[in-house]
Amino acid sequence: MNTKNLFILSFIAILTTYYFILGIDKSIQLIKDEYLSILALIVILLSLLFFKLKLKGHQTINFIQNNQFSLKSTILFFLVFQVVDYYYENGFIGMISQWFLYWIMGLIAITLMETINCYKNYKYLKNKP
Questions:
Q1: Whole-angstrom Cα distance, residue 37 to residue 101?
Q2: What is the pLDDT of residue 68?
Q3: CA 18 to mean position of chain CA atoms
């Protein structure tokens, strides 16, 4: 499955779960609480956009080899964090309140890797004779 589609589907699932279990007010508050992570994501996205515009019309090289984790290991990793969150965040509500943070951190990781790759391509093209 495409990573982009997976992030979109997971975002819809998170919002739907928040809406039905927590209600709209609590859901909005949980999202507002992650404003620093959202701001970091916006800054990284702006950097990525800058480098994409600079590289427009040039062939890019993939400097960062993506390690593809299997869906099975990703789900297992997620479930381990769910058990830890259930214990340390005082139950089910505390556990699901962390889902949006995980989603934002996943986007930051993917976007940051893409930005680093674009930066390396930019530097390579700039130093190319």
A1: 8
A2: 67
A3: 18
pTM of the model: 0.83
- Which amino acid is residue 111, in one-letter code? T
* Residue 58 DSSP class: S
How far is it, in rounded angstroms, from Cα 31 to Cα 25? Answer: 10
Contacts of 111 (CB under 8 A, 6+ apart): 41, 44, 45, 48
Could you identify the residue written with the tokens 């556990």? Answer: 95
Q: What is the dihedral of CA 50, 55, 56, 57, to 10 degrees?
A: 170
CA distance 52 to 73: 32
What's the average model confidence in pLDDT over 13-17? Answer: 92
Q: For a pLDDT cut of 90, what percent of the chain falls above it?
A: 43
The first and second tokens of residue 27, run together, are: 């859901």
